[in-house]
Amino acid sequence: MEKAVLQYMVKKLHTVTQYYNSICILESNNTAPQSFQL
């Protein structure tokens, strides 16, 4: 796999992780984030 593609995927994964973390934080303020547990 090319380095550029790998770096792109890592950036995408980091963005998605931050997105899910923020949702989990918002959800945990109301109820347990069951739908986002791995």
Draw up the topology in text:
Elements: H1 3-30
Low-confidence segments, given as residue ranges, are: none
From the spread of the alpha carbons, the general shape counts as: rod-shaped
Count of helix runs: 1
Describe the main β-sheet briefly.
Answer: none
Task: Give a structural overview.
The chain has 38 residues and is mostly helical. 74% of the residues lie in helices and 0% in strands. The protein is built from one helix and no strands. The protein has one helix at residues 3-30. The longest helix is centred in the middle third of the chain and has 28 residues, at 3-30. The protein is rod-shaped. The model has no long low-confidence stretch (mean pLDDT 80).
What does this entry show, briefly?
The chain has about 40 residues and is an all-alpha fold. The protein is about 75% helix and about 0% strand.
Task: Provide keyphrases for this structure.
1 helix
